[in-house]
User: What shape does this take?
Amino acid sequence: MLHLIKLAVGCATAEDLAERQKARIKADPPLRHQTRNLPRRAEEIVGRGSLYWVIGGFIQVRQRIVAIEPDVWDDGSACCGLHLDQKLVPVQLRPVKPFQGWRYLEGPDAPPDLSRGAQASARSVAAMPARLRRELAELGLL
Assistant: This one.
């Protein structure tokens, strides 16, 4: 299985990402994330893979990718639309260094989904300052 990983630029929390996506669905459905490049391995991703969102320096949530199609930016230039399931699934936090664009994420390297009990704990951790989370992760405490 193959996934994508992407920074949620401008989002401090998973809740920020959810609110931003709710507004997008109302303004310009369906829910999609536009990106410059079409993944060459799209067939391996669609319907099985997810987009893992990096928020505050950590992979925090994922969304299933339901389609990958050519799209256009607001200015009419070509881009790629990653059509996403609306459900944000919390995953085990994993620190990630900043990068541009998106990257492939092989299935075995993807963080596991959180159980319901662990989700409450993850919200508490997500509420910590990013610097503290990073230091705790580097010490192996997260």
Remarks:
- The two ends are 26 Å apart (CA to CA).
- Helices lie at 14-27, 42-45, 116-126, 130-138.
- The chain has a mean pLDDT of 90.
- DSSP finds four helices and seven strands in the chain.
